[in-house]
Amino acid sequence: MTTVDGFLADAARLLKEAGNQDPRREARLLLAFTEGVSGETLVAYPERELSNSDRAWTAIKRRASGEPVSRIVGRRGFWKDDFLIGPDTLDPRPDTETVIEEALDLLPDRAHVERILDLGVGSGCLLLSLLREFPAAHGVGVDISDGAVDATLSNAQEFGLDDRVQAFVGNWFAGVTGRFDLIVSNPPYIKSGDIQALDREVRDHDPMRALDGGADGLECYRAIIPAAKDALKPGGFLALEVGARQASEVSSFCVREGFSRIRVRQDLAGIERCISAQWPG
């Protein structure tokens, strides 16, 4: 008989040997997932017999091999919600919440924001979180991946936002009509030559096309920024996540295209993480 307490001891030992920094907590998270119970239940009933120890050990071995917990359970907490993610979506990270913080500062009159566009929508973490904050807005999400669009629509339905969201497969602005109060994007921005040096949890488990930003990491910004002019309302804003040491160059792209009020926002680690700019009007 395999009990909760016995399993957690053995699983934490295996994860620790694999280099995990918080083995007991992650073992408990994965066991709660495979058993379909809360972490509190596991703590309250340490002598409880596992219903499926094989499934639990499979999850632990996946984690020991470097697969993120979020990928194993298929969900990731972001902003105020818990998002369904999949193999075609980027795993949302706290850095990206900087874009939401910037948008809220740029548009303090939340009731009057009508349309938001998210380019490379992925799981919908940016778009749907923004729709939570802007109650009158409708959102459009575009992604080159069918799986990402499906994830966005599934999350929208789960959060009760499906009547305010349109998401479709496309390449940046292809198929996008009308003008928007706000355009956001977390585009691929890793230099192609730097991909192999990424942490294995990112390199081996995030979709490559959501990471690779070309030779200098700036390829997507060259496509997005000039085209955004024709999709923004006069006075509308563009807010883009950027990689470390990219803020200056991305800002210069905005200046060249005629944007004003260009701002740089740091993430919690003090890294310049978001560029915003306003289209004159």
**Approximate shape:** elongated
- Share of helical residues: 25-40%
One letter per element, helices H and strands E, the order comes to: HHHHHEEHEHEHEEHHEHEE
Largest sheet: 7 strands, mixed
Number of strands: 9
Radius of gyration: 21 Å
Number of helices: 11
- CATH class descriptor of the largest domain: Alpha Beta
Alpha-beta classification? alpha/beta
Low-confidence stretches: none
**How many domains make up the coordinates?**
2
Mean pLDDT: 95
Structural overview:
InterPro entries: DNA_methylase_N6_adenine_CS, HemK-like, N5-glutamine_MTase, PrmC_N, RF_methyltr_PrmC, SAM-dependent_MTases_sf, Small_mtfrase_dom. Keywords: Methyltransferase, S-adenosyl-L-methionine, Transferase. Helix 1 packs across helix 2 and helix 2 crosses helix 4. The model has no long low-confidence stretch (mean pLDDT about 95). Helices cover about 40% and strands about 20% of the residues. The protein is built from 11 helices and 9 strands. The protein starts with a helix and ends with a strand. The protein is of the alpha/beta class and about 280 residues long. The strands form 2 sheets. A 7-stranded mixed sheet has the order 5-4-3-6-7-9-8, with helices on both faces. Strand 3, helix 7 and strand 4 form a beta-alpha-beta unit. The chain folds into 2 domains: about 60 residues; about 200 residues, Rossmann fold (3-Layer(aba) Sandwich).
